[in-house]
Amino acid sequence: MTLPLPSYFTDFLNDIRPTPAQRADMIDGHTRLRERLESDTQLKTGFVSMFLQGSYRRHTAVRPKDGKRADVDLIVVTRMKESEFTPTEAMACFKPFLEKHYKGKYRQQGRSFGIEMSTVEMDLVITAAPSESEAGVYSSLSESEDDLHLDEDETQPLVKTALDGLPQWKTEPLRIPDRDLGRWQDTHPLVQLSWTNQKNARCSGHYVNVVKALKWWRLVHASELPDRPKSYPLEHLIGDCCPDGISSVAEGVVRTLEQFSQRYAFYAACNQVPYSPDRGVDQNVLARIDGKDFAKFHAQVVAASKTARNAFEAPDAQTAAPLWRELFGDKFPQAPDGGPSSKKDGFTPHQGGPGVVGPGRFA
Description:
Strand order of the largest sheet: 1-2-5-4-3
Number of helices: 14
Number of strands: 7
Number of domains: 2
CATH architecture of the largest domain: Orthogonal Bundle
Largest sheet: 5 strands, mixed
Distance between the termini: 13 Å
Helix content: 40-55%
InterPro entries: NT_sf
Strand content: 5-15%
Protein name: Nucleotidyltransferase
CATH class of the largest domain: Mainly Alpha
Mean pLDDT: 84
Low-confidence stretches: 143-157, 159-170, 340-363
Radius of gyration: 21 Å
Pfam family, one: SMODS
């Protein structure tokens, strides 16, 4: 008998994505920032392009919790040569612009500027000039991004990047200033996005929803968990542990938690942090995590994996739903009265498709 849990996950995911109003504020924020950069008389001659990165761009963002702002991460590709500008000097070039348009709303961070608006926080990352062969790729991104509203329609494939279909050796990382370390460092946000596209395809469109579900678990249980890993390092770990070929979000959640528990048990036992290189560059995305914090996080994942497995194998909706709610909080729907086949409250099964929770046992 097919039970109505697929629709529960559909409703749950709808309730943890950024709202239409939040997405509209994100679009307005980054569109206005781009227009101001392109028209700034001091910066426009050194401006190549600005494009979205981060979880918003990869379709893995979740709704802000506890009154926090929605995040938008942006890369500004410039013509500044790192041989001519130190990280501090490169970032200083943008301060007059920020003082003019965002006075009192921005702060300088180690590798970026944070701009706080009423409902949105933008993270502005500056890069050095790419090589001539790469400049054309990056200059074309601004045009394609103008029509990219990222409406979270996950019945459609993720937007392709300029790197999709290209061998990785034909692409180069961008260089971003690290003020704290006093040097330029590699980053490759387009490889991160391309990797996510390919992983999502290998997971029948469920991967981005597995990431959202586990990010929400992280938010719900924040008081029980160490401060790190979170944000992109957490998403990176989920990507490493989520198996290809999953047939539902629920299966992905269970197997990802179990794989994390098994893969990192030794590190946790030794209070050590594994080396996990970023997509496209040889840098440890877990470098800022303390070994004891990683061990504490691992213990919570082990406990969560057992709850998820019990929920996944529960005999009916009335048994499964409370267990999923233990993981995901009250955003996950309660089981209706009247037995597992009840359609009370409109929780009816949904059919599968890319990015949509497919049929299956408590999918």
